[in-house]
Amino acid sequence: SAVISQKPSRDICQRGTSLTIQCQVDSQVTMMFWYRQQPGQSLTLIATANQGSEATYESGFVIDKFPISRPNLTFSTLTVSNMSPEDSSIYLCSALGGSPYEQYFGPGTRLTVT
Amino acid sequence: AQSVTQLDSHVSVSEGTPVLLRCNYSSSYSPSLFWYVQHPNKGLQLLLKYTSAATLVKGINGFEAEFKKSETSFHLTKPSAHMSDAAEYFCVVSDGGGYNKLIFGAGTRLAVHP
Questions:
Q1: pLDDT tens for residues B52-98?
Q2: Region of A52 on the Ramachandran plot (φ > 0 left; ψ -120 to 50 alpha; else beta)
Q3: B49 and A104: CB-CB below 8 Å?
Q4: Rounded distance, CA B114 to CA B111, Å?
Q5: B90-107 tens-digit pLDDT
Q6: Which residues on chain A place their C-beta less than 8 Å from a C-beta of chain B?
């Protein structure tokens, strides 16, 4: 299994600002993912991040709002840009594990936008 | 397109009684199915997975699930609930594509009473 850490664990930000969330995996992984969990809701995939290529975004999510970097096989960042209160959510990263079809999740970053 | 429907948003049981969390799926091919658990203020943990092997899948903490193709169901069960089982449970289907996109159900909140 892979152990995933995220920074920060939580933050309170003002509208109009940006926040970058870091995701670190304790082993090399091919694919990483970013999810959003809005209050009281399920998880929705934002994008898939592969090392060495641009992230693939799901419908409803755009690169200008959620730029993603994947500089190596153990690290990724998600930036939430020009934040509004509607961006208040938990943001989770995950990584595809060694076993087929297993994704391991980080603890999440709880973002509140005021 | 793949989807999952969790039939109960809330389930309440007494400690020591059986747990049943219901999940139906829709898939155009043989799916990979998962159950994840999310304890309050904690990350997601994989309980068990089905990937076209044995239809009765045993997971951690005494949970198991049975894949029933004829009923398109993947219900989660546990013979005897423990207080520590109180959490949010997500039924998840993989789209089976090249990058293992996960599609989450809406979640079922399990409450366990003494």
A1: 778 899 999 999 999 999 999 999 999 999 999 999 999 999 876 55
A2: left
A3: no
A4: 10
A5: 999 987 655 568 889 999
A6: 4, 31, 33, 41-45, 48, 50, 56, 92, 94, 96, 100-108
